[in-house]
Amino acid sequence: MKEFKRVTLQDVAKEAKVSYASVSAVLNGKDGKSIRVAQKTKELILECAARLGYVPNMAARKLKNGTNSLIAVFTYEQIFPVESENEYYRFFVGIQETAEKLGYDILILNNRPTEENSSRIVLADGAVMMGVNRDDKGIERLVKANYPLVFVGRREVSDVSTHWVTFDYQKVIAQMVDHLNDLCSARTLVYVESQEQEREPRKDKRRFLLEAAQSLGLEVLIVQADERNMLSLEAFGLIEQCKVVVFDRLFLLEPFERLLERKGLKLGSDIWGAVLEDDWMGSHEHWTRWSNQRLELGSLAVEYLSHLLQKETLEQLETLTPLYLVISESSAFPK
Amino acid sequence: MKEFKRVTLQDVAKEAKVSYASVSAVLNGKDGKSIRVAQKTKELILECAARLGYVPNMAARKLKNGTNSLIAVFTYEQIFPVESENEYYRFFVGIQETAEKLGYDILILNNRPTEENSSRIVLADGAVMMGVNRDDKGIERLVKANYPLVFVGRREVSDVSTHWVTFDYQKVIAQMVDHLNDLCSARTLVYVESQEQEREPRKDKRRFLLEAAQSLGLEVLIVQADERNMLSLEAFGLIEQCKVVVFDRLFLLEPFERLLERKGLKLGSDIWGAVLEDDWMGSHEHWTRWSNQRLELGSLAVEYLSHLLQKETLEQLETLTPLYLVISESSAFPK
DNA sequence: CTGAAAGCGCTTACAG
DNA sequence: CTGAAAGCGCTTACAG
Asked: Per UniProt, which keywords does this protein have (chains A, B) (predicted)?
């Protein structure tokens, strides 16, 4: 078997009998700056490069330049999920489209959780990270070293400031609470939370909900679903009394609807409800929620990263993607 | 905004007040070979590296070593398809599992068709390519330069030998034809082909079918579906006469079944049929086909690549993944 | 046991 | 207009 012998600039230079500086200049279209090459030499060089099958060595280029127009997309979730609607799909589409538009290629590092991961990420000029990170020392180290890393969704790393873009939860949650308040005269609403690990987005959503309710003089009762995402009888009793319920996660809805059915209650007339997510699973259209802007957020993440990479000022860069309230049967106005 | 200042070996060496050769040795566990470092120095170095947040520069390492234990997975298809069952999913799982087992990380290059792509691939030590390649000059160049590239599915590149793994179509097709022959007394079968571009796997399947039929003294009539994957009336008439039909692609089956229904014919009793694919879409269980061994083939591709990379002999390496005939209603024996 | 030095392939400021 | 040279960060054979 023949070896993979890389054709280098040197080889091309020898073949064309010129210095390799000229070859580099021609092949990178840098002709005209500090280096100038005669038209004939140029053609000769291009011909030789093609004939020998020259493939530039990205590793060397990256080492010398510090950049390679590659951005890493990183997630700790499974990348190729079997589920029809991958939670990250729309983010990724936005990332991909925008990266292409801005002239970046994309490098997807498939998760193999190791300390080494960080050095792999660093092959790229910067990275976009989707999903909930485990408490990873490698990532933390990168952030602390000021590696250009943009999180999709707000993330904190102790002691250092992080770069992130996220949804404008505050505004849409205020609208949602307004709407629920208009809908019925109850002075109390029940907020049902899942048992998921406490992360920044979840904290944010709860805070915004409480603030919005307070500004309208509404009381909020917070209850937790159990590990099977079910409500206790007491919790359900509260909801029956208050008539208005807000869930933090989509997957809490189905168990709740089963419960409603068993009690003979009807969503949207006996009980009003909403959920603090978009309908990314495509199967909760009858719930009041917000619009799916995941593509837009992915896109924004890349724009933000691009600013970082070009050392442009971030002052006037927006970091929030607006969300739109989608009012549906679960909290529709009575006809 | 602070710059991303990379912490280098030099920085660590300065901090620990040792030469950077020692740092390199310690950090790579190479202590003991041509370089030996005292236990105390070792601990000091590790402590300094951790404190400064040293992240090895993969680009430099790759440039020096020529390897970085990264393999690229490359495909021209959309990588994050919305469809529930991605055609490449099972291949990818096999690739991923085996790469992990053999100590490789995986780098997914998202397709942006450019000449530059080839230099991006070459960041990795080798590559596995899934799916039908367009006639890409970059890929051709890599193959000609002996870059370690394994195709999933047989692929030819003019003038040079390629590395590929594929399914053992020959054996399973022979079994399938045997089965169809046992099933009914017809001496002729109809082979329906799609209008897809002619590629190696398709040529192979056709050839194996013809050979298998010939060895049993069966005649094969080849017909083409139209651009909407429909059969002409004449073609359908032939099938009605011969009673046995084989399709090359899954997507031809639904239009055919609609036609059958319209004619009041029943698959598996009036007409027998089979398809030269596995049921990767999960919705053709009632068709005689072969088993889905995509995971196994992805796995094999990585094993093959690993042999290439370690310059082991390829002599005794199997390149075929066996397929198993799955007999189903479309050609079941009458009860 | 430790350090100085060469070299991987490239880019670019600089000298001729 | 063209070439020689330094240097990006790393590894490793070799000298001390």
From this structure: DNA-binding, Repressor, Transcription, Transcription regulation
d(CA B174, CA B290): 12
Instruction: Count other C-beta atoms under 10 Å from residue B52's C-beta.
Output: 17
Footprint of strand C, using CB within 7 A?
Answer: A 6, 8-10, 20-21, 24-25, 27-28, 30, 33-35, 54, 56-57, 60-61, 63-65; B 18-22, 34-38, 41, 60, 63-64
Is there a contact between B147 and A57 if contact means CB atoms under 8 Å apart?
Answer: no
pLDDT of res. A84: 47
Which chain A residues are closer than 8 Å to B4 by Cβ? 145-148
Sheet order of strands, B244-247 included:
B219-224, B188-193, B244-247, B272-278, B288-290, B325-326
- Element (H or E) spanning B47, and its range? helix B39-52
Q: Verify whether the Cβ–Cβ distance A112 to B105 is below 8 Å.
A: yes
Q: What angle do CA B16, B56, B40 make, to 5 degrees?
A: 30
Return the residue matching tokens 């290059």: B109
Walk along chain B (335 residues) in steps of 10 and give the mean pLDDT of each run. Answer: 73 82 78 66 84 86 88 77 67 89 84 67 91 77 88 89 95 97 89 92 96 96 95 94 95 95 93 95 94 96 93 81 96 78
Interface test with B, best of A3, A4, A91, A121 (most B CBs within 10 A): A4
Residue type, B246: V
Collapsed DSSP state (helix, strand, coil) of residue B2: coil
Name which of B1, B96, B100 is nearest A314 (Cβ-Cβ). B1
pLDDT value, residue B82: 46
Q: Is the dihedral of CA B312, B315, B316, B321 positive or negative?
A: positive
Residue of A7, A80, A106 lying closest to B89 (CB–CB):
A80
Decide if pLDDT at A10 tops 90.
Answer: no
What is d(CA A142, CA A137) in angstroms, rounded to the nearest whole number? 9
Chain A residues whose CB is inside 8 A of the B107 CB are: 107-110, 120
- The protein residues having a beta carbon less than 7 Å from any atom of strand D are A 18-22, 34-38, 41, 60, 63-64; B 6, 8-10, 20-21, 24-25, 27-28, 30, 33-35, 54, 56-57, 60-61, 63-65
Contact B38, A182 (CB under 8 A): no
Q: Å from B41 (CA) to C4 (C1')? A: 19
Cβ-defined contact of A83 to B82 (cutoff 8 Å): no
**Structural domains of chain B ordered from first start:** 9-56 (1.10.260.40), 70-167+296-321 (3.40.50.2300), 169-291+324-331 (3.40.50.2300)
> DSSP letter string over A30-84?
-TTSS----HHHHHHHHHHHHHHT----HHHHHHHHS--SEEEEEESS-SS--SS
Give me the residue label for tokens 């059958």.
Answer: B260
CB A88 within 8 A of CB A77: yes
From chain B, the residues in CB contact with A123 under 8 A are 58-59, 123
- The answer to whether B218 and B177 have CB atoms below 8 angstroms apart is yes
